[in-house]
Every structure is written in structure tokens, then in C-alpha cells.
Amino acid sequence: MRERIAFIAALVVAALVSALLFAPRFQRPPEPLDAASAAPAASVAPPEPAPPALAPPAPPPLPAYVRVDPESRTACRGGMVLVDGIYCPYVGHHCAAYIDEEKDICARFEPEVLCEGRLQHRRFCIDVFEYPNIEGVRPVVMVNWLEAKRACEIEGKRLCSGEEWEFACEGPQMWPYPYGIARDPDACNIDRKISMPVLETFADPWKISAEVERLDRRVASGEMHRCVSPFGVRDMTGNVDEWVNNELGTLDEKPFRSTLKGGYWGPIRSRCRPVTSTHNRWFRFYQVGFRCCSDALDGGKAVTPAAKTARIPRRSPMVDPGGRQGP
């Protein structure tokens, strides 16, 4: 009897377990959707396509007096132009109106130019812009003469000689300024108001960077569109002083081989012929940069005596870009 009762109890338990296992599971009925979620999704318009990028404005045309030698493409490396012509070693200009006679800052020159010395045929290549010779980039500063020389050599170039730099700046008419015979403060980055440097900071590596930034008035290479020489070289006067190799100077005493040309952004001479040859080869300053030259790729000599038929009158008129002779 007891076994039977136990057996029945086991059956009951098994039935209950089966019911739990196989009975449909309880499910919560889904919550009703509200009207907003029940509505069909609104169609989303695709985003408007971005307008095409505007092409940068075309650079203004070169001044009419500029003649870039077409041989530049084959005779020079990229970023350089060919300078080819007759160079007068000694040139004299007479200032007709000074801005500051003591500082030799001339507003306008007399139309007559004096040429002395044996004429030379110069043919070489020169960077269009100040180093690093990239349009739209400010030129380097705080570089000494040795560093400038080395940087040019790494590119297979060399520092310009003083005479090369002068000829590339003044052109065949021997202008005092790369753009003519009258000073134009709007053509090149010149005659800017300057701050006086605190010289002690240039001996302190923790302060020098901030001081250079405080003094800086450079503009990007090529920004001054009218600051271009007759050969198509940019920013030769103003912006930054440029190291050249003064072949008549010495390494250890004045006048030094390490010579500066062109002036910087401040109110100084900023002409093609003046030089500053009082700084040794280790000198560096906040406004000092450089550009490079090279021989032409065809192997021609950079300087030779001019042909006997070449002639520049001892006295000749300078015709300014406007077609006028003199001011």
C-alpha cells in the first residue's frame, strides 16, 4: 500500500513538472504604440552637395618692365630664373630728393646714371624668392652666413656673389630700386615701423624666440606683387636682409666676405647697390636671411669679359617703368 501511494505521488510530481516544462510561457502583451511612433517615418532629404571649391584668384600680371628669360625653363632648376646680360661693375646715382640724407634714404633719383669699369657678361640662375624659395611662405631668419652657404650647397647651388645679386636686382638699366628710380613704400616690404630689439634676449635661449616674434614684420614671399626686378626676381629689397658672398672681402676682418644686401622691412636704404659688410660669418639676427644662385645647367661660365662690341655709355638716361625719363 505504501509503495502504491509513493508511486502515485511520483506520478503527480512528474505531471506537474511536465506541465511547467511544456506549458506556453507567459508573455507580457506588447505595449500599444503612440501615434507618433505608429506613424510612418518621414522621408529625410539627402544633404545638399557641397559647393565646388573656388579656384584661387589668378595672380596679377607681372609689371610691363619684367622680362623673364624663356631659357630659364631649361637653363635653371625649378624655382629659379636666368639672369643674362651686360653688367657694369661701378654705377653712380644722384639722389634728387632725400627722405633722410643722413641715413642715405632717397625718395627719387636723377634720371642719369654713371657707369665705370670694364663691362662683364653675366649669365647665371637665381632663386625667385628668398629662402626657402617657396611662394606664400615667410623667408627664414636668424641664419648666419655659414649656415646660408651650406643650405645653398645642399641644394646644388651657392650663395650669390654681391655682383650677381646687384645685377639680378637692378636689371640692364641699372635702376637704384628693382622697380625703377623712385622709392615706392607700397611696392616692397620696406619703411615699416620697427621695434627696437632687446639685445640681451639674443643671448638667452629661453627668450630669443619670443623676442624674434615680437620684432617680426616679414611678409610671405611673393605677397608684394609689385616687388619684382626686371629679371623677374621677387622681394630683393626689403622683407629680409640677404647674405651674399663678397668676393672682395675677407673672412676675418672688415670688409667681410659675409655681406648683406637689400635691406629689411625697416626704414633704411633698401636699394640694389648698397652693401653691409661689417658682420662676420657667425652673425645672425632677427631680420637676416638669404637666397641662392647657381651656374646655368648648360655649363656656361657665370661671368666673362663682355664682348668688344658691348657698350654702355658712361652716362646714360634711366627710363622708369612709366616710360618717363627721370621723375
TrEMBL record:
Signal peptide: none annotated. GO terms for molecular function: formylglycine-generating oxidase activity. This is Cell wall surface anchor family protein. Residues 33-45 have a biased composition (Low complexity). Gene3D superfamilies: paralog of FGE (formylglycine-generating enzyme). Residues 33-53, 305-327 are annotated as: Disordered. It comes from Sorangium cellulosum (strain So ce56) (Polyangium cellulosum (strain So ce56)). Residues 138-293 form the Sulfatase-modifying factor enzyme-like domain.
